[in-house]
Design brief:
The protein has about 675 residues and is an alpha/beta fold. The protein has four domains: about 130 residues, Rossmann fold (3-Layer(aba) Sandwich); about 140 residues, LpxI C-terminal catalytic domain (Cytidine Deaminase, domain 2), CATH 3.40.140; about 160 residues, Rossmann fold; about 190 residues, Glycogen Phosphorylase B (Rossmann fold), CATH 3.40.50.2000. Helices cover about 40% and strands about 15% of the residues. It contains 29 helices and 24 strands. Helix 10 packs parallel to helix 11 and helix 24 packs across helix 28. The longest helix is centred in the last third of the chain and has 21 residues. The protein starts with a helix and ends in a 5-residue tail after the last helix.
Length: about 675
């Protein structure tokens, strides 16, 4: 292990939420910290939870000695510090010597911070940027909430980006506010929040634009926003916030998105110089209609994210029709029929509903042919969606057909890739190793990335969830994820109920949190009412907070295993299907594992108890081990991070990649 990983990270803490976020990230990574907190700037409620010392800004000499005494060799500068007058500074000899060499007023903020970093490095400290600790908290090139900017604000965004960079080039600030084609205000030494307060009543409908300064010392003062920034922008009457992607720290990304949605604001990251940074205001043709078809809740989540990304890429000039669930409905889709009609899995489970599903296929094909969309995007659910594609092609329809989520041909025997190539024009894959399987049979295929990369599963609020639900500090919380289809929930809930009863007999102070989708919420609530353990049922809005608050999880096999890995929750995966379905699967499946963490790593990092092994005794014992065995917990958390890294966790938005693939293939 490197010295920097063993030694405490020194945090030079000023004002704002960044010091607290760094402390949280280090705690999650198991790295000790020591905080040198500046009096009058740092928040005592944050600092006093960890080893720390308070000093005045002018005590450089004693501050350096304190850091060395606590074994600090690596430093990060976090938070704001107002530049004091020489009288208020009351410098010690080391500080006085530093400023005498530089000149007190000669330097702008960035130049001064560069000089401070050089001085710290001369003293033998390694100075790192906050982004080195919080790489996953940099703004993506994507919307952060459900609201995206439209063409009406394109000119203001372009002007704001240019003005913010020009302002930063003079080392004066990082942000501007633009409204109705003019720069209303520029950030001063008092910061972004003060600028927003000045603009109340002066910038209604405007945009806050925040970028890094050209050539900025990234280790000292990256642009930063948090939920409080969103609240201040809403109070100022702004329409949205634009920040520089890859160069802006997000303090509580999930909180920013939630605050923006509540306030009706857009918050987006843009890459400087990219097309999205300066949207065109030229007249556009009629907004294209894109037909989407999702057959189950996981596809509904993908479809909703794709809809947001398409609106963002087109500045709102796009229309949607098709089939989806609650999340796509929240994005404005009126579904042709309820998603529950399709959400079944397994041969024995599908057969009783085959006639109804085929009737829905005919209905969808007729709707597509009547609407004549610019493209059709089918999402997962191959049993339903491939029949739509097949019938459209047999009818001679030339509409571009795009399928989202590659079938697992690497896991299943048979010619599924060749069959797809007969009907589809393009395939969007979630896993990086999938495209070659389809390209070799002539089907165009692009890796766009797995949605878990941008779901925010690792950004839940543990303390907030426990506080809201009055969960005591010593209470053990186990998350139960029973699936999203009525059939699987019906099979698994009795098993989970017996498992919980056995677990409660071994684990005192146990609480169960069951996270559900809306379509099975009533079914789950009715079942868990009989459990003799404190149980909370939560929906999508609290799911990631529930993950953060949990000490272990028991989950039906599916995408949720990756979400739990992102949240750092040790998990046991289980599943039961009809014996006939299982017998068929054993003959055609050629992979050893059921969940993607294990598939990606090609080893059993996450316990899988399936079919006959899915017994209450085995499940309770395995979950109990994860609650008690720290080494087992840590090993699984590390394996989850390894798998997520292979998927590009924290990198470019899969939703935007998918939107770009769709837009490139619209019918002209």
């Amino acid at each position: 292990m490197a010295a920097a990983e063993r030694d405490p990270l020194g945090i030079l803490a000023g004002s704002g939420a960044l010091p607290g976020r760094l402390i949280e990230a280090c705690a999650k990574a198991g790295r000790p910290v020591f905080v040198l907190a500046f009096t009058g700037a740092a928040d005592p409620a944050v600092v006093e939870k960890v080893p720390h010392t308070w000093i005045r800004l002018g005590q450089a000499g004693s501050g350096l000695a304190i850091l060395r005494a606590h074994g600090v060799r690596e430093l990060v500068m976090a938070g704001g510090v107002r530049r004091p007058t020489p009288l208020a500074l009351r410098p010690d000899w080391r500080t006085l010597k530093f400023f005498a060499a530089l000149g007190w007023r000669a330097l702008g903020d960035d130049s001064l911070l560069r000089a401070v970093i050089r001085a710290l490095e001369a003293e033998g400290f390694a100075v790192v940027g906050a982004e080195a600790i919080l790489a996953g908290d940099l703004a993506p090139d994507a919307p952060l909430g459900h609201i995206v900017p439209d063409s009406n604000v394109a000119a203001d965004i372009a002007l704001g980006l240019a003005a913010a960079r020009e302002h930063g080039a003079h080392d004066r600030g990082q942000a501007v506010i633009v409204a109705a084609g003019r720069v209303v205000d520029r950030e001063g030494p008092d910061g972004t929040d003060a600028m927003l307060k000045r603009c109340v009543g002066r910038a209604a409908g405007g945009v806050l634009v925040k970028t890094s300064k050209p050539g900025q010392e990234r280790r000292a003062d990256l642009p930063t926003i948090g939920p409080a920034t969103v609240a201040a922008a809403a109070s100022a009457g702004l329409k949205g916030i634009v920040v520089e992607a890859g160069a802006t720290l997000l303090i509580d990304r999930a909180g920013i998105a939630a605050a923006a949605d509540r306030a009706g604001l857009f918050v987006v990251g843009v890459r400087l110089g990219a097309a999205s940074a300066a949207p065109s205001t030229a007249a556009a043709p009629e907004a294209p209609l894109i037909y989407l078809s999702a057959g189950e809740p996981s596809g509904d989540a993908l479809g909703a994210n794709l809809m947001r990304a398409l609106r963002y890429r087109t500045q709102g000039r796009v229309r949607f029709a098709g089939i989806g669930g609650e999340q796509m409905a929240a994005e404005g889709l009126t579904s042709l029929f309820p998603l529950d009609d399709l959400a079944v899995m397994g041969l024995a489970e599908v057969l009783p509903r085959a006639r109804k599903i085929l009737r829905r296929v005919r209905q969808a094909v007729a709707d597509i042919r009547a609407r004549q969309p610019a493209a059709v995007v089918t999402i997962d659910s191959s049993g339903f969606n491939w029949r739509i594609a097949q019938r459209l092609r047999r009818a001679g329809d030339a509409v571009p057909l795009i399928h989202y989520v590659a079938p697992m041909v690497w896991a299943w025997r048979g010619g599924r890739a060749r069959r797809m190539a007969r009907w589809y024009d393009h395939l969007m894959a979630l896993l990086p190793f999938e495209p070659p399987y389809f390209e070799k049979v002539g089907l165009s295929c692009a890796y766009v990335g797995h949605p878990v990369v941008e779901m925010g599963a690792g950004k839940g609020d543990r303390a907030g969830f426990r506080r809201r639900h009055e969960i005591l500090p010593l209470t053990r919380v186990v998350a139960i994820l029973p699936g999203s289809r009525g059939g699987e929930v019906g099979r698994l809930l009795p098993l989970f109920g017996e498992t919980v009863a056995r677990l409660a007999a071994k684990v005192p102070d146990l609480m169960i949190v069951v996270a559900v989708t809306a379509n099975v919420a009533a079914q789950v609530k009715a079942a868990v009412a009989a459990w003799k353990v404190d149980t909370i049922v939560v929906g999508a809005a609290e799911k990631y907070d529930a993950f953060a608050a949990s000490d272990a999880a028991l989950a039906a096999s599916g995408t949720v295993a990756l979400e739990l890995a992102a949240a750092g929750v040790p998990t046991v995966v289980t599943y039961r299907v009809n014996p006939l379905t299982h017998a068929l699967l054993k003959r055609i499946v050629k992979v050893r594992y059921a969940n993607l963490v294990n598939v990606i790593l090609d080893r059993p990092a996450v316990p899988e108890l399936l079919q006959r092994d899915a017994t209450p005794d085995k499940l309770a014992t395995t979950v109990g081990r994860l609650l008690e065995d720290k080494a087992a917990r840590d090993a699984q958390i590390a394996a989850g991070q390894e798998a997520l890294k292979a998927l590009g966790y924290g990198q470019v938005s899969p939703g935007l990649r998918a939107a770009d693939e769709v837009l490139a293939r619209l019918r002209r």
